[in-house]
Amino acid sequence: MNTLKILVINNYGQFCHLIHRAVRDLDMDTKVIPNTTSIEDILAEKPDGIVLSGGPSMERVGLCQEYVEKLDIPILGICLGHQLIAKTFGGEVGSGVSGGYADINVEIIEEDDILKGLGPSTSVWASHADEVLTMPEGFIQLARSDICEIEAMKHPEKPIYGVQWHPEVAHTDKGEELLMNFFEVCENY
User: Number of structural domains, the chain?
Assistant: First the structure.
């Protein structure tokens, strides 16, 4: 695989720099940028893909909804990034029944582009303080768990993906595979 340029959008989550490191460790050219960066400045970077990091709240996502709506670049939303994608396209986000971080067994419903080779189930590290309660109309459910029905989803036409869990942490099995699958999407887009 060629070296791609992947921008990590900082939503002030505690794992943002781990995402950056995981992407860099997979031999990609990467940079963390603030979520207040203009679309023009993002396009000037000529990214092959964007990762929306997790973060503490929907109130601190800056221009991320604009990125999701207007950029024609593959996007992977992690945790808050996943929820932000859902909300942008009309889905519902709310408090989960299970709060803090924990190991979760996720059932892969569809081994699509980003979950290729991860099924039929995988163990992941996730917080469910907030989660996607209702997917946006037309979106495709990719994974579920006993505590959250929408662990992963994708846009029906655009290369936009969301996962509730954190592929960048060591506690997640096959996290690197998920990221590499996303890079493959970016390379082929």
Answer: 1
